[in-house]
Amino acid sequence: MTETLEKVREAASMLRDKLIVEMLKLIKQMDDEGLDKINPQALSPMLRAWIKGHYGIVPNTITKDLLKTYIEVLENYGMFVRDTNIDEQTVRGELTEKNNEHQVFGAFVYRSLKKQLGDEKFETLLKSIKETYGLPRPVHANTLLVMLDIMENDRIEVIPISLIEKRLKEDAGFTKSMIDRMRWDFFGNGNVAKALQAVLFDAVGIVNGEKAFKLKDSVVKFIKAKVLELLGYEQEAEEMLDYTNNAKEFLRNFRKDGEAVYLEKIKDIVLGEKVDYFYIDYLDLAKYDPRLARRLFDEPEFVLGAFENAVMELQEELFEEISSENPELFDEEFKPVFLEVHVGNFPHVIRPRDVRTDFAEKFVAVEGIITSASKVVPFFEIATYVCKHCSKEIGLFNRPTRIPAKPPSKCPDCDAKGSFELDVRKSKKVEIQHFIVRDAPEMLNVGENAKELEAYLLGKMAGAVDVGDKVILYGILRVKERLSKKIAETDYVLEVIHVEQLNRGIQLELSKKDVQEVLKLGEMFGEDLPDAVARSIAPWIRGYEEVKKALALAVVSAEGLWDKRTTIHVLLAGDPGVGKSRLALDLENVAPKFLLAEGGGSSRAGLTASFEKDELTGKFTVRGGLLVLGSDGIVLVDEFSNLKREDINALKTCMEHGFVAPAKAGISNVKLRATATIVGTANPKAGKIDRTRLLIDQLDIPFPVLTRFDLIFAFFDEPDEEKDEEIGWSILSEVKRKKGEPPKRIIPAELLKKLFAYARFNVFPEVTEEAQRLMVSEFVKLRKKTSTNGNSVSRRIMDALVRLSYAHAKLRLADKVEKVDVEEAVRLIWKSLEYVAYDPETGEIDVSILQVGVPSREREKFELFIRVMENLARKYGNIRIDIIKNVLNEKGLSDDEIERFLERGEKLGYLRQLGDFVEWS
To answer: Who's near 149: CB < 8 A, 6+ residues apart?
Structure first.
């Protein structure tokens, strides 16, 4: 037998060494290739099996830190034979535990427990409970045993003190003086009692005018485990018993770079530092105690409870150590602080669409974007109901995943029916926030649709998330205990314990290798990199270099320039079938974050935000639209002009200020971050652009929204032999052929996506004094060049000039904004002005078109129209069109001019035509 065991150990040791060698090779490979992480499929089947057996789950990404953790675990833990069989042993142990629990605790009866254990073992049990939880004396452990009896036999979770006293007297033989002492030590208002309550109870309420308590699950499990141990079921007891002690050992002994990081945190708390929660890095736990790390995944509620107990106990122990050496540090009696324990840096992060039954009641990390969130409201953890007739009180324990507990239909004391009413003052309330987390667009693979997961935060964490936040949520995946009426199915809800806010920008993680590839592009193309990027966007559509450059700058944006708007909005307007939508749609392939909205099928609520009722609470929550979800990315609004007028107007605040402020009756002061860059496409109202008319008159887009676009380009479908031949060949170039390939991007799509992400969030060029002088000089030139009848470009053009220059420098991966950047910005602005501010009658650029919506030649007449309309509105309210025409005809305006000004006035938001009447605003 000994020889066989030695062979097994030798084989296990060889296997351990083999796995260590494999991981060392992987780390070297990652260093050589500049990789920060690899896919778990790169691991050998044996290594994946060991990780699964050791930790219960294989991470979805493998980092170097994680590999180093595994190596350290393998080097320090010799019982590799047992570890490799941990799955089988765990299952067998859990079944044994459940069977024995059923046999021993089928009915946890206090009186029979003494007989089962005998006097000596029973006293050992009391002493063990006393030492574990710091009770004043062993005899008081009877209180917890009696409470467990009441919970399991009487089915009462929140137990009033009078019932505990009654059973202690009847079952445990407590005298009046013993009960009085127990009441003060456990349930009084002294420091000892408060400390005990924080350790032992997770709910305190009022029942029949007196305090009532619920035992923590971890306490229940500890007592049962200790009983199992005393009855001889040591292996089964170990599975339940050692978590708190293991947690204490980890917190006290774990070292990082030689420092006891967690012990020092607890020392700081003892010395008065205020913290909201106690944070533990999962990888630290995985390195020190893999078994406890696995238990965290399998039994999160119990393990987290054990850590909370451990933090409390260590505070007491450290207080004793510190105060014995430095008593002057403490002016008052020490009171340990109860802290929730949060765990983060879990290596297996899933998306909402990845949630499966395997994760039910397990510890999970879910990454996504918050799409809707309720306000923080009270939740009745213990709802106290009072009988209207006899004043009997009943405390009912609630959980957010359960159907709310209902009081009895009849009072057990006075038999009155329907007499119970909720007493809010006597009920225990905690804060709660419900919200929805959804798959972030950039996390989806081709063909995948976004899924959603309900979640909630309890207590101090409530309110920690807002709509539009990108987060990793750590918590326990609960199953809602609500079955539908017709079929037995339910859903999941995430009980969030810890929130990790991610960078709210483009979430494309770049490895060192990725960054090296991006920087090589800068070396390869130098100053021509922006041109190479532009030619890599929709290469099958020839020409339109300015448009492609503008789209590239929109993706990069002026992030990091200043605290005001940094987005660069672009509008592509023109004749149908010229390729503007296909050109813009290629951004889906190259932009790190991209969302699409169809103008005809999108609403104000879908684009900005809306309110909807929460399924769990029945209260209204705010749900972010595409511009909220697309923050720091691109939202392409195809057929922009097909949006309803009121929906388009709602975009103005978002485009200029980067937020939306939805409102609903009774709900106000809600602001959601919406920093999406809008790229719009629009067709003219008549179907084709008329070169003899102003472009802005032919687009059904309100003027205030139109002016928020930094760059507007027009596309014309006119016969031209040379261009038409080029179009024909560009279309044929997309045909798949056996020989030859369709046009390739100069920079491949995936690399271009990395370039955009790197340039946007890692390149922040300096705007030198020289660059500033050059920008001012160019702005002055633009003002002078566009001056017509006293009108010239406004300061908005200066804002756009600065944004475009800065974005161009970022796209060059430059560390300074230089002359080439400013010149390119001016070129694009001028190209845009040639379209949007072109007066076909004079053949000149007229900035008055951008400022007031009419050319300078008509400005005097339009101002006359405005003055007359304001006077008529004061006199009539809603004005008949025939009255308007009569008055304006007398002033010298023709009917054609009046019709044109009415149309422009509506576009500019001055008026609204209602049949034969005009409403002036």
So the answer is: 108, 109, 110, 167, 171
